Amino acid sequence: MDCSSFFGGVVATLIGVFSTVLVTKKVETLKHELESKKALKRLYIELADLCEECKDNLSELKDTYYRTWHIEKGYQVDAMWAGVSIPKPPNTMILESHIDKSFEDLTKEQRIGIRAILHLCRQIDNSITSLTRQMGDGKISSVSVKNYMSILCALYHLSLNMKEQEGRFVKINKRPEDVQESVFKSLGIDLSCDACAGYQVVVS
Hints:
Layout: H1 3-73, H2 77-82, H3 93-102, H4 108-136, H5 142-165, H6 176-187, H7 193-197
C-alpha cells in the first residue's frame, strides 16, 4: 500500500467519524428542541388548568365568605356553619415537572412569573393552614377568607396572563387590591355588605 492510499483512507475515516459526530449532535439538538417545545406546550396547558382551579376555588370561597359574614353577625349561625368549606390548594405537581423541563427556554419575564406563581402557591398553603386552625377552634374570620381569595386572585391573574401571552409575557405591576377588583369583576364575585346580607341558605 502506498502512502497516498494510506493517508487517503485515514482522511476518509476521519471525515466519516466527524460527519457521524455532527449528525449525532444535530439529532440531539433537534430532539432537545422538540422536547422543549412539548414541555412549553404542556406548561401552558397546566397554566390554563390552574386558572380553572382558581376560578372554582374562588366560587367556593365566595360562599364561605358569605357564611362567615353571617356567623360574625350572629345570623343563622348553625345553618351557616354547616356549609362552611375550605378548598384544597391548587395541585402544582405536574406544573412543576413541566417547569423543570422548560425553564431554560423561558424568557426572563416568564421565569419571574413562574417564581411568583410558586410563591403564591406557598402563601395559599399558609392561608389554608390558618383557616383550618380557626375552624378547629370553632371560629372563622372573614378577613382570613378574603385574604385567601386575594391570593387566589393574584394567582389566577398571573396564570391567565402567562397562558395567553406565552413568550410575549411581561409581568404587570398592579396593586393586589386592583388585581382582586379586576378578577372579582370578571368572575362576577360581589362581597359587598348588600350581597352578604342577601345571601340565604335553605334550612331543612
